[in-house]
Amino acid sequence: MTTFHGLQKGSHVSGSQPLVVHITGARPNFPKAAPVIAALREFPLTQLLVHTGQHYDEKMSEVFFRQLGLPEPDVNLGVGSGAHGAQTAAIMIGLEELFTDRRPDLVVVYGDVNSTVAAAVVAVKMGIPMAHVEAGLRSFDRTMPEEINRLLTDRISDLLLVTSVDAIAHLGHEGAAADSIHFVGNPMIDTLLRHLDSLDTEGVAAAVGVDASQPYVVATLHRPGNVDDPADVAELVKSVHAVADQVPVLIPLHPRGRGRLEEAGFMDHPQLSVIDPLGYVEFLGLVKGAAAVVTDSGGVQEETTVMGVPCLTLRPNTERPVTITHGTNQLVRRDTLPAAVAEVLAAGRQATWPVPPLWDGHAGPRIAEVLAGHLGLTRS
Ligand code: UD1
Ligand code: UDP
To answer: Which residues line ligand 2 (CB under 6 A)?
Structure first.
């Protein structure tokens, strides 16, 4: 993918069609945006895809564009990593310039990352209508940067696209207008279901040295609450090593915290294999065959729910309680994780499991209908 420092103009000829600008930037944005962009192609409008550059490693960014059939971004702001204020501000500066230049008719933001809130603030101050995909999720934990991003983004969005019923209630309590809330389902699950049958568990397992004929656990860890503070890291190492005493564990490790985990001896266990982040289809191929997943990711809680893979979430709370009530998820602490894994290994995987309402693979088209309706468009 080409990185443009500054703006690349003219990759779409807008003519008189409305301009919809999608804001992506971090790994979880890409599987959410892909089905929306695809479904909007059926309407007479012009789309512009912005990558803020919040994530930039090949395996955190470019691989998703290849594997998910996303178009190459029209604009990459190339902001890179930084402290919250610096990163958010750099995105805002770049987007203000872009929106001044191209004047969108609608801005679409995804999820709860810094790129989401930065775009939302710029759009609302410029009087540009804005839609938030995955609105209304709440962990009620304001120590999480994502919770602040969610609260602020929802408060200023014109269209609130909701993935689960609980989110409707949260938005209602916060005073959102009922006609701004649209229960559309989960676009991340559209992407999963599109790829599910072609995932090659055995092939990926062989490539990363996992024996897929025996139980194994896949883990992902990146939340500040687990990997930023050395005291938390020390507990985490102990906890995950106690899991690896029972079963081989494979961890495609997010770059955040890698250094701290390494220093704390995380990698020093014979049944623990730490590798770089995997591409989307490789990662989910491994998850599909896993006896259990240990994670602090938001999206992985949802994907395991739909795949029926037991998910042990190493967090004190979740903004996705539907994955507990309708899915395979349970919250665990670092001290309870090893026993929880033992239980899950003994119980085995369930033959059937419930799936949350509207996580059916058709959220993208529903979202496109709402967005196009807002612009007064019907299918071309
Ligand atoms: C961000 C999101 C988080 C989301 C996660 C998904 C915010 C506040 N947080 O967290 O909600 O769950 O993405 O993965 O937006 N880094 C690299 N290469 C990259 C990207 C990051 O090495 O391509 C390293 C850098 O050292 C960087 C650190 O990871 O400082 C954190 O990156 P950042 O985007 O700030 O936050 P995440 O922890 O990735
Ligand atoms: N993912 C991936 N490779 C990995 C780990 C995760 O492709 O090595 C995918 C995962 O399947 C999901 C998305 O990344 O689609 C979730 O991103 P992440 O956990 O970074 O963010 P969160 O959902 O916690 O915001």
So the answer is: 27-28, 31, 220, 252, 277-278, 280, 283-284, 297-300, 303
Mutation probe of ligand 2 site: the residue of 67, 192, 283 with most atoms within 8 A of C-beta = 283
User: In which region does residue 175 sit, left (phi positive, over 0), alpha (psi from -120 to 50) or beta (all else)?
Assistant: left
Query: What's the pLDDT tens digit per position in 118-149?
Result: 999 999 999 999 999 999 999 999 999 999 99
Computed over every residue of the chain, the mean pLDDT equals: 95
> Which residues are registered as beta bridge partners of 29?
none
Q: Is 151 helix (H, G, I), strand (E, B) or coil?
A: helix
Note whether 3-186+359-374 and 197-347 share their fold: yes
Q: How many CA atoms lie within 13 A of 169 on its CB side?
A: 6
Q: What does the pLDDT read at residue 350?
A: 87
Distances (CA, A) of 48 to 13, 44, 103, 157, 354: 10, 13, 11, 19, 37
11 pLDDT higher than 70: no
Give the CATH H-level superfamily of domain 3-186+359-374: Glycogen Phosphorylase B; (3.40.50.2000)
Which residues approach ligand 1 with their CB closer than 6 A? 26-28, 54-57, 60, 81, 112-114, 145-146, 222, 254-256
The closest-lying atom of ligand 1 relative to the alpha carbon of residue 56 is: 23
Q: What is the DSSP letter of 178?
A: G
Query: Atom of ligand 1 at shortest distance to CA of 114?
Result: 15
* 292-297 mean pLDDT: 98
Handedness of CA 219, 325, 344, 342 (dihedral sign): positive
Q: Which ligand 2 atom sits nearest the alpha carbon of residue 192? A: 15
Which architecture characterizes domain 197-347 according to CATH? 3-Layer(aba) Sandwich (3.40)
Structural domain boundaries in the chain: 3-186+359-374, 197-347
Q: Can you tell me which residue has the tokens 């990997």?
A: 227
Quick one: average pLDDT of 67-72? 97
